[in-house]
Amino acid sequence: MKLNATEILEKTLSLKASDLHLMVGAKPAVRINTALSTLEEFPILMVDDIELVLSQILDQDQRQILEVNKELDFSVSLGNKARFRVNAFYQKGYPSVALRLIPTVIPSLAELNLPDVISQLCELRQGLVLVVGPTGQGKSTTIASMIDRINSTRAEHIVTIEDPIEYVFTNKMSIIEQREMYLDTHSWDIALRSALRQDPNIVFVGEMRDMETISAALQISETGHLVFATLHTNSASQTVERIIASFPESKRSEVRVQLAQVIEVVLSQRLLPS
């Protein structure tokens, strides 16, 4: 029985699983309501099974990046039914794949039970808005909800740079252009600097990962644009320290002043069990 990507994604969707794990030497596993279980109807996976799935969901450029970097983030669609965020990587010399279901409907701020002050942030016209927290704490969902709120209430040109694209926006009052790393661009820094030439009102940076990306985001904020971004930090105070520490000692005083001038809010987020 050859493993088929569409078939196993359909199975994941039918089980209402949040995650799917494929690794050599084990049966496919899914996470349902936080509990991990194997799909017993599928065989123990061999290297050829994983390679076959990868050949069905990766293009040639992505495959080359995976072979060089040994890991890759991207997204894959199951027709119009669902989208998955995918992390392909190597372990013990063999390829593995972790997929997470991305909801197709962007939840509203009210559905997320976010405080009213978050709605007020959607009225901003310029500056830097940071949503921070550990991996898997809903940062991208919060920002997607905020962007969709803006999309529904005013006419703006919004450019997103993501790795990978998670929520897919539909133009309402605004025009939204979404760029995915390694599909539409190969550099966070270049993509951000190019964004300034694309006549944006709002820019969403999927993650401020390094000094170059942070510097470009600060520059865009300084030039009268609204920038949303995420950062993997545990608190608001740690966020400021992390940004400043990303720069050489000789530039930190300048960056501290620059950050103070553009930052509007740091929202530190945690998900609580329901």
Automatic annotation (TrEMBL):
Gene3D superfamilies: 3.30.450.90, P-loop containing nucleotide triphosphate hydrolases. Residues 6-273 form the Bacterial type II secretion system protein E domain. SUPFAM superfamilies: P-loop containing nucleoside triphosphate hydrolases. GO terms for molecular function: ATP binding; ATP hydrolysis activity. InterPro entries: P-loop_NTPase (IPR027417), PilT/PilU (IPR006321), T2SS/T4SS_dom (IPR001482), T4SS_GSP_E_ATPase (IPR050921). It comes from the Bacteria. Belongs to the GSP E family. This is PilT/PilU family type 4a pilus ATPase. It comes from candidate division WWE3 bacterium.
